[in-house]
Amino acid sequence: MFPDEHLEVRLPSRPDSGRVIPLPLLSHHSANRASVTCKYRCGNACAHEAPNTSANAYFGDIVESVLSRRSALKASGVIALAVGGAAALTGTATAAPAPPVRPGRGNVPGTDFTPVAPNTEDLVVIAEGYDQGIVIRWGDPVVAGAPEFDFNKQTAAAQEKQFGYNNDFAELVPLDGSGTRNLLVVNHEYTTETHMFVGYDENNPTEEQVRIAWAAHGLSVVYVERERRGGLKPKPSRYNRRITLNTPFELRGPAAGSDYLKTSVDPTGTKVFGTQNNCAGSLTPWGTILSGEENFNQYFANADSVTDPATKARYARYGIKGAASTRKWEKFDKRWDLAQEPNEANRFGWIVEIDPHDPNSTPVKHTALGRFKHEGAAVKIADDGRVVAYSGDDERFDYIYKFVSNGKVKRGNSAHARRHNMTLLDDGTLYVARFTGNSPASEIDGTGKLPSDGAFDGTGEWIPLASGKKSFVPGFTAEEVYIFTRLAADKVGATKMDRPEDIQPNPVNGRIYCALTNNSNRGSTGNAAPDEANPRVGNKHGHVLEVDDDATGTKFRWDLLLVCGDPNDAGTYFGGFDKSQVSPISCPDNVAFDRHGNLWISTDGNALKSNDGLFAVPVDGPERGRVKQFLTVPHGAETCGPVVRDTVVTVSVQHPGELDGASADKPASHWPDGGDSQPRPSVVAVWRKDGGEIGRR
């Protein structure tokens, strides 16, 4: 960041009105996120204009139009309000007195621990009274025949059998009711070659280094047992499996076999090798794992050499551009060269599903859920037995989606039930969200100040995009909707959001929670202005969205549970809770729940100059909004994939020591092994020293 550069930001929310004030030019993540992370994880997305250049209506214009219509309708005795052709769920936006700030009245079960203070230690710092242990590290053996890890003697053959790099999403899949025997399933999001190999030459990687990176992507399935003292220990098992960029996947659903998915290697358009940039995910009710392919765009070379204007426009909307790629994989396999295989990029950006119970099963890419930068997907079962999957597109100014199946879930844990339920995500309707606030546009001034009714809230609608072979988007065939989903969503006027990341349904209250990590370009010249669902300009701290959804319907209500940042900042909000009693939180990323329904949030890129961490917050009752930090991860690292069980919590510690100026030649961290060792991404387990329940004293 250059301190003398500025963005022009307009207040209030109309892009053509309001005063112009200068704001410092902010990076995509924060001052605390290293540029090397941006380079290797997302292809320096922050250094480029956001791919969404669509002319969707500005939220302020929509609200002002709605309010004008409301006045006219009220004058004629009509009380219903229409937005975008659909009736809203609420009536007027009459301001109510702001709710009183609630002081702490006790500790909610699941959150009863002493908060960890912000810090910059090169270790995992946990709450008092708890203990911790490493579950598994990059390079540890997974499948039979895997050698012990040797940083200086890595091979692709070894990495195919060892735990992959940069663990992100994790889940514990129970094998019985005891909680002792589980399958740990972990995503491996990306590789940072400068931190993996001593003497690495970015311009001339060796073929073996490239093949090691292919093997370090994907997922790991590892059988783990609960130790008596509280930790989790990996064990040899027939379940253990590595899924890499060499693993065959089946493309299924309505777009499978499309001409847009065919390549010289796969003329059927139904088979893909591998999965990459897998970020968040979830455990389905039928015991499989859903995982999202996110920043796949950065892996492909020579987009600039493609001359077809329609193809170039589609590439641009997905952030695919340039000549040589960062990793230079195109030197060793033509599928990464779009000049030779222009459709290969279309075969990534999907939700994948794997069955961890069957190590011989073929993983699936579900085309019915659309193609974009999926942070992940999570499923809830509707009252009528259909399944609903929610997903966010992790890019500045992109959208939130849901899918509703036509088929109904088959109950039970049998292999037959799993096979049936894995087909549910191949047939249904794909929707994108449009949000409407219930406050006047003039009250959303971009500072984070609450409107007069005391909340950022409103209603919304799910706009149908496609169902089966039928498209609801003018000018798009159904297969084009599924494969070029971003462009279809642009066409119908979805709401531009501040990097929607992990979205999960709360198993206790049924509401849906979405982490919106940040968006430093919100309100800058030429970009979407603040709106009630994204209320701050230069949003470097992010917020958490809460949705009360009619699961199989098209209407929902929403509010912002948290507007993150320093509690001393007037532009933050903690569910109405007393801000003097909360932990500071910045850049929410992954979300999870304990059995009490408390929300647990991991962060990515803490812009408050302290390490990332894991936080717990009640979402109901008098303690709603009381954020408490449970742990922090080492400097340079990100907290990923939290799993919260009654007596153990796990987190994935991703890219420890990934700081600018550091490399394998000059490591900035020696976590987790200490001494002069190289840093290794790892999964950590935390438990109470006395063996009791997490968050209860």
From TrEMBL:
Taxonomy, superkingdom: Bacteria
Organism of provenance: Saccharopolyspora elongata
Name this polypeptide is given: PhoX family phosphatase
InterPro entries per UniProt: PhoX, TAT_signal
Entry-linked Pfam families: PhoX
Region: Disordered, residue numbers: 520-540, 657-683
